[in-house]
Amino acid sequence: MKLLVVEDEIKLAEYLRKGLTEEGFVVDVAHNGVDGLHLAMEFDYELIVLDGMLPGIDGLSLLAALRQTKQTPVLMLTARVRVEDRVRGLQSGADDYLVKPFAFSELLARIQVLLRRAQPAREVGNATVLGLADLEIDLIRRKAVRAGRRLELTAQEFSLLALFLRRQGEVLSRTEIAEQVWDMNFDSATNVIDVAVRRLRNKIDGPFERTLLHTVRGMGYVLELREE
Amino acid sequence: MSRSGIGSLGRRLSYWLAMQSLVGLIAVCVAVYGAAQVGFEARQADALQQKEAQLRHLLAESDEDMGTLRHKLDEFFIGHADMALSLTRSDGSVLYVRPAPANSVRAVRFTSPARIPNQDPLVALLTLDIRDDVALLRRLGFTLALAALAGTLFVSVGGFLLVRRSLQPLRDLVEQTRRLAADTLHRRLDGSAQPDELEPLITQFNGLLGRLELAYEQLEGFNADVAHELCTPLTTLIGSTELALRKARDASELRDVLGSNLEELQRIAGIVHDMLFLSQADRGVTARRTSTPSLAALARQVSNYHEASLADAGLGLEIVGDAAGSFDTPLLQRALSNLISNATRYGQRGSTVRVEISKASSGEVVLKVVNKGATIGSEDLPRLFDRFYRADPSRSDAHRNHGLGLSTVAAIARMHGGRPLAASSGGISSIGMTLMDEEGLSGSVKATCASESSASPA
Q: Model's pTM, two decimal places?
């Protein structure tokens, strides 16, 4: 999967390149609008991460020029929170935007959503039974079982567990969990997610020897089977 | 001082006073002059009439010869140097003449029967010399005009000086105002030496100064608060990073430090995000409204989000009432989430948090979250919505609650044309907001809604 990052801030561009490469993407970086547009026109990228403020050609102009011929998905990065900018960004053909400062996990999540949207055939989420190790849930009968024992979960806890199982091995940020499970699209300063995850963990891991739901400090939570 | 549209007040006043007095004095002078003229004319007419009667009598009575008549006529005019007469016969021959000046005369012509020299009637032209009267009238007119001009000048200069004097306190006021600066906002204008007319202006200006001082203090306090809020996580960041670099540490230890640093950084980012949101609301960005069929459903969704926290705090939750309207749904979710968080934090274990939704007849929607718990002091109530205000700063969850939650609620209320609400008594606290439905807003506000859009978070 080949991505293009157009970002003039060298340190930020370098960290994006490193992070995305570690996630298994092939990453090209351009530090100004002219190079960025040239690369975007020359090669076929799966997705472009584009900074809104660039020397040479600014992000919006680059996008407008690109959209003349190509429909490559574009994720805009912007430091300006003025909503007009966001709307302009989306109207000018950006597929999504992210306001600085943002967490890398947030960026990754947005990129994955955009890539999935571009290739819906890759979606594998239509299984009705999901499981990890001795934990299993049935999405239709809304039943969760671990080691043969039935787990009593509330509807919210069931949805949360289903998300973790569907995205097992992937670190999910609090923001993304709030968005996916409760459709809450704002950064909340509350510890609501932490409490919800803790209560879920008490039910699915509490009585058992091996822990499946792990906290990744500063980033979020992940459901996976770790070597003891 | 030609900047203002109407120019100098003193000059304008003295000009108009001069104009008015000029017109008034001219009217008086014209009246005096006219009356004098009429008086003179009446006296002249009287004199002529009297002499005419006497002459008629004399001419009718005399039956002597021409010489005697001339003599009588000469005698008649003794002491009347201002009078002249010419007597002519009907054929045009002159019988008697006493010369009159060429102009400035008043004349009367009459025909008189006479005995001599024959029975022919005589044509008499009696004239009165009025040169003295004319001169007198001219002098009077001149004097009056001069007096009018002098009076006008006096009133004009007097008015100008008077206005200047009366405006002296105003200049003092300007001087007082000039001395005001941002750091001396506690000063007020002294209105003791000012005329009554300026009293309301000074009162209003001092009121404005009071409001400015308050706003300035809040702003300064706000800046200090921001710096303080950012100081704590920054200190932690600097310290822990420094400590980690001091000696060789293994990977898991470093990972721990980085994780902890990330948490602090996210806290800073959260504060910055919230402050940007608040500053947008302050700049007057309004809500991006979409049709919201049920606020109760929205409250249900948000309460589901808080289910675990509420259960953890041993609290139940019920939703009372419903309303529909046009609101910015993501913003309302955020506001409600903050309100429920607040109720969760302060609610008494085992009690029920109640979300109340009601619609007033005025079209105003009231959204309140009510919880049992310690009564909030009346001095704290108005400060609840202040930025970074925490009723109890020493609480253990202060690190997650950065004190912008309720100010965000207030901002969202304002973005919907409403205001925040807070009440607390008898162990029951009710915090919420009013929202104006779009129909309740005027057309101009609607237009703003269309052109600007809200700050729904990413």
A: 0.62
